[in-house]
Design brief:
This protein has two helices and three strands. With 76 residues, the chain is α+β, with helices and mostly antiparallel strands. The protein has one domain: Alpha-Beta Plaits (2-Layer Sandwich). The termini are far apart.
């Protein structure tokens, strides 16, 4: 399995994507079509939704291919 991971940032949030894990369920595209555009490059246009909307949608990814983190927040 490939360990390729891509990151997309809006300055507050970073969305991660691991293509090898993606099962192409389409939940991301159906949930936020203005952000997740599989026919575009880059396919994630993170600036087209609020941080809250992005986090809520990424949490619905069934394969775990999409993830997120806040670069300015320290883990506790």
């Amino acid at each position: 399995m490939s360990s390729i991971s891509k990151e997309y940032s809006n300055g507050e949030l970073v969305i991660t994507w691991q293509p090898a894990k993606c099962i192409h369920s389409g939940k991301c595209v159906m949930g936020l079509p203005q952000v997740f555009k599989p026919k575009s490059t880059p396919w994630i246009e993170i600036e087209n939704a609020s941080t809250e909307e992005l986090v809520n949608q990424v949490k619905k990814c069934p394969s775990g291919a999409l993830g997120y983190y806040f670069p300015d927040k320290k883990s506790t």
